[in-house]
Amino acid sequence: MELLVEPRAFRLRTPLETAWGTLERRELLHVGVRDAAGLVGWGEAAPLEPYDGVPLALVREALEAYRPVLAAGQGMAPGDRLDALREAADLPQALAGLDLALWDLRGRREGRPVAALLASEPAGEVEVNATISALDRAGAAAEAGVAARSGFRCLKVKVGRGDDAGRIAAVRAAAGPAVSLRLDANGAWTPGEAVTAIASLEAAGLELVEEPCHGVAALREVRERVGARVAMDETAAQPGAMLSGAADAVCLKISRCGGISSLLGAAVAVRAMGAEIYLASSFDGPLGIAAGLHAAAALSPLPPCGLATLGAFEGLEDPLPPRDGRIAVPTAPGLGVDPPLR
User: What is the pTM of this model?
Assistant: First the structure.
């Protein structure tokens, strides 16, 4: 098989302020595999260096290391091929791009959507949360009101920056009591700070607090000292963290897991440990979001997933728009979306 790599970038309509920095532009790589018959499957390699510490250049190097493996592995079993790719370069963000492309290729060959390849009865739609990005009370309240009126039943609010208490109160007032609130601190706090902050915010009614601090020991300490449920995100990249029992829920991401195949395995393992799972993206492109939807459909039922982010990009017509707080899983062969035109 032949490897194709194409750089792509999307600009956010409004910069996203987080504990790890400000995101204004999302750069990623479209990854294609062309078989002997000329059919192409497409995936997406989407590292985000400020978030996961993986530079795009490193992913490019890994993809180049995969070329000879793909060229020599036309008849190789999927498991053997994955082992050979990992031996060439064990980088999840690069492996994810290829894994998605191979699933897309298989779906296109068989004329079936990826979700139907993953499960016998996948869900037809996935419930998603809306992300509240404004740092001021009025802006956050306005976003929350729009999201609630649009049918979202779960809102995710970034915390650890600015007036968290005032902003969360404003969001709750605008969204109403029936909407779930999910906080995401991106590891902004120490354990002590997290306990104090969560205690001051719990009155708003919280579904969970995602990554209040970094590290298994820190998350376990916070979880033991607060009433709110604690979820693991960035810490899940640490060896053994997902199965540590340090959190009530684990946020799984296609890029960090190394693709759909590895994400499904991680989901089974986390559930076996008694923790809940949900999926999210780090502002991935359409191919990455489509992959997340197919995986979520196969793992259904799930809590609301963080996959309603394509509307944040300027100049991109969203091929997977949320409707009433849910996104329909693509039914076309493969991932069901094509790489967006430049």
Answer: 0.95
